[in-house]
Design goal:
Elements lengths: L6 E5 L3 E10 L2 E6 L2 E6 L15 E6 L10 E8 L2 E4 L2 H13 L10 E9 L2 E8 L5 E9 L1 E2 L4 E4 L5 H15 L3 E8 L6 E4 L5 H12 L3 E9 L4 E6 L8
Parallel strand pairs: 4-6, 10-13, 12-14, 13-15
Antiparallel strand pairs: 1-16, 2-3, 2-5, 3-4, 5-6, 6-7, 8-9, 9-10, 11-12, 15-16
Helix pairs in contact: 2-3
C-alpha cells in the first residue's frame, strides 16, 4: 500500500448533472433537475467506459455574461471508486502547478521556458531548461481509461498525433536533449500506466523503442475531489512498457 500524501493544487467551482448522450466528440448532453444541458467536452478520447447513461458528471458552469451555446465544461465523471478527472486542460494546469511547486521529483532542477513549442515538425507542450543550461522537451498526455487490472492507458482511440510526438521526442533525445513524455493518470483506481496496445499497437511499439533510446516515459496521478479540489496523489506512478 502507498502512503497517501495528497498535495492540493487547485479548487474548481463545479455543479452536478447526469449523462444523457454524446452527440459528437466535443458535446455532451446532461440532465439536471429535469433540464437538459449542453456541456463542452474537451477530451476527444472515446471515454466509453465512463460516459454511460445516468453517470454522475461534474461540470464547470460558464462564466456569467459570456456568450456560448453550452452551459459549461465537463470536468469529471463519477466511478465506483471516486471521480475521474477527464478534462485535459485541467489536468495540464494541475501538472504545471505541481511542477512549479516542486512536487514532481523527476523534474527537480528543471523549469519550463516556453509552451506549445514547434520543433521537429510538431508542437510539443513544453520546452524546459535544466542543469548547466541543458535544454529539454516534454509532451503531456491524458490517461483515464482503466482496465480490469487497475492500469490506465493511452490512447483510448488511435492517435497519429501522439505517434508523431513520440517520434519527435526520440529524434530530440538523439540530439542530446532531455526528452520526456508524461501521462496524467486521472482515475482514482489506477495503479500503473501502460500504452493501450489493443487500440494503437504502433504507438505502443514506438513508445517502447523511444524508451530504449533514452526518452523518459513518466506517469503521475491526480485526483478530483467531490468538493472541486484537484490534488497530486502520486508523482511517479509505475510505467509498464513490456
Amino acid at each position: 500500500m502507498w502512503a497517501v500524501q495528497l498535495r492540493s493544487l487547485l479548487w474548481l467551482r463545479l455543479r452536478r448533472s447526469r449523462f444523457v448522450s454524446r452527440p459528437n466528440r466535443f458535446l455532451v448532453i446532461a440532465e439536471s433537475d429535469g433540464d437538459l444541458l449542453r456541456l463542452h467536452n474537451r477530451n476527444t478520447g472515446r471515454l466509453g467506459e465512463l460516459l454511460r447513461p445516468g453517470a454522475d458528471l461534474l461540470y464547470a458552469p460558464k462564466e456569467s455574461g459570456r456568450g456560448s451555446s453550452t452551459s459549461g465544461t465537463l470536468i469529471g465523471v463519477s466511478t465506483d471508486e471516486g471521480l475521474a478527472l477527464v478534462d485535459p486542460p485541467t489536468q495540464a494546469k494541475a501538472f504545471e502547478l505541481a511542477w512549479r511547486r516542486g512536487y514532481v521529483n523527476w523534474l527537480s532542477g528543471w523549469c519550463p521556458t516556453r509552451t506549445e513549442v514547434k520543433v521537429r515538425g510538431v508542437k510539443l507542450d513544453y520546452e524546459m531548461l535544466g542543469h548547466k543550461g541543458m535544454v529539454g522537451y516534454l509532451e503531456l498526455k491524458s490517461a483515464v481509461y482503466l482496465d480490469q487490472l487497475g492500469r490506465c492507458s493511452y490512447p483510448d482511440a488511435p492517435s497519429e498525433r501522439g505517434l508523431k510526438h513520440v517520434r519527435a521526442l526520440e529524434v530530440l533525445r538523439g540530439e542530446g536533449r532531455r526528452s520526456v513524455i508524461a501521462f496524467v493518470v486521472a482515475h482514482p483506481s489506477c495503479r500503473a500506466f501502460r500504452p493501450f496496445v489493443e487500440r494503437h499497437p504502433e504507438l505502443a511499439s514506438e513508445l517502447a523503442r523511444a524508451s530504449e533510446a533514452g526518452v523518459e516515459v513518466r506517469a503521475m496521478r491526480v485526483l478530483l475531489g467531490t468538493e472541486g479540489s484537484v490534488s497530486l496523489d502520486e508523482p511517479d506512478l509505475p510505467v509498464l512498457l513490456a
